[in-house]
From TrEMBL:
Record-linked SMART domains: ZnF_C2HC
Enzyme class: transferase
Record protein name field: RNA-directed DNA polymerase
Taxonomic source organism: Lasius niger
Region (Disordered) residue spans: 1-44, 234-286
């Protein structure tokens, strides 16, 4: 090809990208007209000079500032390459002519590293882009709201421009969610999200609704705008005459603008005519006109929206099942036909049938209403909180449970809703329900609303109803009969029936809502925990999530659950390789063991004060809520959680504060409005209250605690057993030194009857009702107790052994053998208690150990205080220059032309001399280099460096 032809084609390409010809004698004006016959575009790669001439018209210029221009530079190149094909190599050759300053130097030093445009783009963003550009962009999208006077088309265009810059891009549904949510409330209510499937449909529907609001937003026309036209106005039209086409200002008003000024005299006359004529039609009439023109997205009909469409939208075919299930299905249909629950139907709807197996081996007839529930109105009536019901069963001496027979089928279904519940069965035909079926999204709320009218708050705290499960608990038998008659009368008045096979009357313990309710409190149901016991070792993340979900249901019975499951939850982290080892198997086995020996939790008595014990460790925080009863201190609930990575960097005092704040929030339903006691082994709350001018999270915690009424009690860490165990990670069995057994000396229990009344009463109870007292056992005419793991946790070995229960006449001998004899060595309170707890148990044993050790004359005469020496207190005194140095970071400040944004300030506390260093980024390597240059290389290494423990100094 000749040079002349190249030059012509270069000019042709140059003209193709010119939007407006620029005047000048050196270049001819080239006008491009679309050719009449379409022809296939011919793509080719221009030479470097041609590429430069093309890119020169893209208005490219960048000097190296770290701001939004760096991203805009890449966007302009991307848009330009959509017009004409340019190779990466040609662009790299031309880029230096459009760069200046730091950007030009950077490009020349690194251009040999890039082979593709993608590599250059990544390096460009890393060097000149904002570090958190995508985060800032997402935040801007979430905060973008349509202005009150902003047209919806402009708002949607702006949102699309922001969403287009996301990397990686969001799903279309998520983009539409944000665009729809941030519209004006009146548009968001009128345009339903389900009717929008792309931005075009959103813009169309929103524009239509905006036009409906347009006449209401226009001010009334005044008669004094053009007074000279009042005499030339046309006569008023009679009421019975046909309205003129140009009767309103809206006919000449520019579309999309509000309060636009008329531009022609005719429009002005029309305005005067309208002002002098009869009042215009109401807004509702205009809306009715637009509604008549509206088209349904479902049936493509006019005059209604898709949500009001009466055409059948859900029609499912019959699902094939085995002959056995088909037989059960036909039996259920015959039974429901006979009972009037279903009837033949001529509905246009049809839902698939699902047979659900019951625990007794029979099948429950259900329908798959998932598609129906998607288009149904949701009922927001609340269901009772199961924990709140269980916590109120304090007076559970006599318990009865009632189960309603075919609960939902006892609720009549509205006639206009029956056809929606239709279903088809081969050889049987099409039927629909006349009673409320299982599976509808509003069925639980509807049924609970009925039960709340029958068994409402006036029956608390003796009768409660959770859907079809009713429980009655009273302290005396006489009261129980009275309340049982009241509940049965209420049920009978509502024409409801109960299932006698599932009812239990006047029991000492019952199964309710997956737990066992008894006089002593609440414990787990072995039948419900059996699936956990038989759960196989998880093979993938899905099975592991299922196992953790089932186990977390009983988290109130398992102390330090989060620390036990930490090896398991570690596998759920993103991009974590699946590696199942001995640690994970041990965690699964530990959870199963805890459920088999779960303690009996007491029901709270809100007339008694609560005691909250908290503790924190480097891996988690733990808490236990207790109350003091006649029989001693009882546990209400356990709670624990692992610390997040940022929380593990807190100081010890801050972690202890976090434990208290989190525990109070966790048990807020118990503590709010009551005075309670907080027991901790650290004076964190006192430190927080005495802190001057707290800021950040400390100020937030201090404000949150002001609304509670509590008393702080400090307990030594050695005596803070349960919360300490809840907060620490699981480390297996703990070895205890000097485990000298004292069983041989006291096992010789006399054959005569004990004088301990408590011992005799408990012995008779366990012997007569062994199933009720599952933690007690009578063997060889002796009473044994299985100590639950949450009581002492990791300070006692062999917790799975049965402990011999000692009557009061043998306890002093046991204490003497564990502490006073030469082989015991007069150990302290903790170790004496540990030795006894290995083999024995009696109520308030720890208190008896404390009393015995404190009364020991040998210990009081010879033992000295074992406390550690006091540590450094107060401020360190600087005795020489540059021995104690303080450092901190100021910023981010407004960015300088050189890119500096942070200021490192270093002060010598002896001379008060200050050194400063500007930084582009506050990172550890940068700060270390600054310390070496400013301090270490000039003054030597300081003895102490004081910082705020920020991550930059780690």
């Amino acid at each position: 090809m000749s040079d002349a032809s190249d030059e012509e084609e270069s000019e042709e390409l140059e003209g193709a990208v010119d939007e407006e010809p620029k005047p000048g004698p050196s270049k001819p004006v080239i006008r491009i007209h679309p050719p009449t016959p379409p022809r296939t575009p011919r793509a080719r790669t221009p030479y470097a000079m041609d590429a430069y001439n093309i890119m020169r018209k893209w208005n490219l210029n960048f000097s190296g500032a770290r701001d939004g221009e760096a991203e805009a530079f890449l966007i302009r190149i991307k848009q330009g390459r959509q017009l004409i094909l340019l190779e990466d190599e040609e662009i790299f050759k031309c880029l230096p002519f459009f760069l200046s300053g730091t950007a030009a130097h950077w490009f020349r030093l690194n251009k040999h590293l890039w082979r593709t445009w993608g590599q250059f783009e990544a390096a460009w963003r890393s060097r000149f882009g904002f570090p958190n550009f995508q985060f800032t962009l997402r935040d801007k999208i979430m905060r973008r709201r349509q202005g009150e006077e902003e047209p919806v088309v402009d708002y949607i265009t702006c949102m699309q421009a922001l969403l287009e810059r996301l990397d990686p891009p969001w799903q279309l549904s998520e983009q539409l969610n944000y665009a729809h949510r941030n519209m004006l409330p009146r548009l968001r209510i009128a345009v339903r999200r389900k009717e929008v499937y792309d931005f075009r449909s959103l813009e169309t529907l929103a524009s239509q609704v905006e036009e409906c609001y347009e006449p209401d937003r226009q001010p009334n026309q005044t008669r004094s705008i053009f007074p000279e036209l009042a005499y030339r106005a046309t006569p008023r039209q009679p009421k019975h005459s046909k309205p003129m086409a140009a009767a309103g200002i809206s006919a000449t008003k520019p579309k999309g603008k509000r309060n636009a000024t008329t531009e022609s005299k005719k429009a002005s006359v029309n305005a005067i005519d309208k002002a002098n004529s009869d009042p215009k039609p109401s807004t509702s009439a205009a809306n009715n006109t637009r509604m008549a023109e509206m088209r349904c997205w479902n049936c493509d009909g006019k005059g209604h929206r898709s949500r009001d469409c009466t055409q059948a939208r859900i029609l499912h075919c019959y699902r094939c099942v085995s002959p056995k299930i088909q037989k059960a299905m036909r039996e259920e249909i015959d039974k429901m036909l006979k009972g009037g629950i279903i009837e033949p139907s001529f509905s246009e709807w049809s839902n698939p049938v699902v047979m659900v197996k019951k625990p007794n081996g029979k099948y429950r007839f259900c329908l798959d209403f998932r598609k129906v529930n998607e288009v149904s109105k949701k009922d927001a009536y609340p269901l009772p909180n199961m924990s709140a019901i269980l916590d109120k069963l304090r007076a559970a001496q006599y318990i009865s449970t009632l189960d309603l027979s075919q609960a939902y089928f006892q609720i009549p279904l509205a006639k206009d809703s029956r056809e929606i519940t239709a279903f088809s069965v081969p050889d049987k035909g099409l039927y629909h329900f006349t009673r409320m079926p299982y599976g509808l999204t509003g069925a639980p709320a509807t049924f609970q609303r009925l039960l709340d009218k029958l068994i409402g708050p006036e029956m608390e705290p003796f009768a409660f109803a959770y859907l079809d499960d009713i429980i009655i608990a009273t302290p005396t038998f006489e009261e129980h009969i009275v309340w049982l008659k009241k509940v049965l009368a209420k049920i009978s008045s509502a024409d409801l029936t109960i299932n006698p096979e599932k009812c239990e009357f006047c029991k000492s313990y019952v199964k309710y809502l997956g737990f066992i309710v008894q006089k002593e409190g609440l414990t787990v149901d072995p039948d419900k925990t059996l699936p956990i016991m038989e759960f196989p070792i998880p093979k993938n993340i899905k099975q592991l999530r299922r196992f953790l979900g089932i186990a977390s249901w009983y988290r109130r019975f398992i102390p330090h659950l989060t620390t036990i499951t930490e090896p398991l939850t570690r596998l759920l982290k993103k991009n974590k390789r699946w590696e199942w080892g001995e640690e994970q198997s041990s965690a699964v086995q530990t959870i199963k063991e805890h459920l088999t020996t779960a303690p009996v939790l007491a029901c709270p008595d809100f007339e008694r004060p609560f005691v909250l014990q908290t503790d924190a460790s480097s891996v988690g925080v733990g808490a236990v809520l207790t109350q003091n009863f006649e029989e001693g201190e009882r546990v209400i609930a356990f709670a624990s959680r692992a610390l997040a990575d940022p929380e593990r960097k807190y100081s010890v005092t801050e972690q202890e504060c976090l434990a208290v704040v989190w525990a109070i929030k966790k048990f807020r339903p118990y503590l709010e409005g009551y005075k309670f006691t907080v027991i901790t082994d650290h004076s964190s709350l006192r430190w927080l209250h005495n802190l001057r001018n707290p800021t950040g999270r400390l100020a937030r915690w201090a404000l949150e605690l002001l609304e509670y009424d509590y008393e702080i009690i400090h307990r030594k860490g050695a005596l803070h057993h349960v919360p300490d165990a809840l907060s620490r990670s699981y480390e297996g069995e703990v070895e205890i030194n000097a485990t000298v057994s004292v069983a041989a000396e006291v096992l010789d229990i006399p054959d005569t009857e004990s004088t301990d009344e408590w011992y005799k009463r408990r012995f008779e109870q366990v012997a007569s009702e062994p199933d009720r007292y599952n933690q007690w056992r009578v063997m060889d005419e002796r009473l044994y107790f299985l100590r639950p793991k949450p009581v002492i946790s990791d300070i006692v070995e062999d917790l799975d052994r049965w402990k011999l229960v000692l009557p009061s006449e043998l306890r002093k001998e046991a204490l003497r053998e564990a502490h006073d004899v030469p082989q015991s060595g007069h150990l302290g309170i903790e170790k004496t208690y540990q030795r006894l707890a290995v083999s024995y148990y009696w109520p308030r044993m720890f208190r008896d150990v404390v009393s015995h050790v404190k009364k020991c004359g040998t210990c009081q005469l010879t033992k000295v205080e074992q406390a550690n020496p006091a540590g450094l207190m107060g401020r360190r005194i600087a005795e020489a220059p540059w021995t104690i140095v303080a450092a901190d970071i100021m910023g981010p400040l407004p960015r300088s032309k050189s890119g500096f944004q942070y200021l490192l300030v270093i002060q010598d506390l002896f001379t008060k001399w200050i050194e400063c260093k500007t930084l582009r980024s506050a990172t550890g390597p940068k700060i270390r280099q600054a310390l070496e240059d400013l301090i270490i290389s000039r003054w030597g290494t300081p003895k102490f460096l004081l910082t705020d423990n920020g991550t930059e100094f780690v």
